[in-house]
């Protein structure tokens, strides 16, 4: 049996005190709030799996950060997250609000290290292909050039 430790990290919110109370009672649980970028990167480096269970996420930068560290991810199967995670390729999607489904996905990845590692590498490749500053800048430049061209065509 694996030695599993759950680390919950993020901004303080409505559940913070309840999580801190649980941390005091439960072994294998550590809660971090309002962490620095350095601590976040350290946590990503030691993680086996990165889970973002949020049901209201506009983009999910945490997935890109996790992939940058070559970690596999699990996210809720909602709009933007479903568009970022390629299910069963670079991470897993779970049914939003379904703790059992999330639990099964976590167990599955913990029992399949090779697959989890391969998903992390696949995510890393996706970040390198689509989400580097160089690529993003080129996309913005292309969009601006197209807008200027369209403006000039309408004007003339």
**Unreliable runs:** none
Summarize the main sheet.
3 strands, parallel
N/C terminus separation: 72 Å
- State the helix count: 7
Helix fraction by DSSP (H/I, runs of at least 4): 55-70%
What's the β-strand tally? Answer: 5
Strand line-up of the largest beta sheet: 3-4-5
| Shape label | elongated
Mean pLDDT: 90
In terms of DSSP E residues, the strand content is: 5-15%
CA-based gyration radius: 19 Å
Give the helix/strand class.
Answer: alpha/beta
The secondary-structure element order is EHEHEHEHEHHH
Question: Can you give me a brief rundown of this structure?
Answer:
It is built from seven helices and five strands.
What this model shows, in words?
With 156 residues, the protein is an alpha/beta fold. It has seven helices and five strands. It has helices spanning 16-25, 37-46, 61-68, 79-84, 99-111, 113-130, 133-155, and strands at 6-10, 29-33, 49-52, 72-76, 91-94. The chain has a three-stranded parallel β-sheet with strand order 3-4-5, with helices on both faces. The longest helix is centred in the last third of the chain and has 23 residues, at 133-155. It is elongated, with a radius of gyration of 19 Å. The N and C termini lie far apart (72 Å). The mean pLDDT is 90.
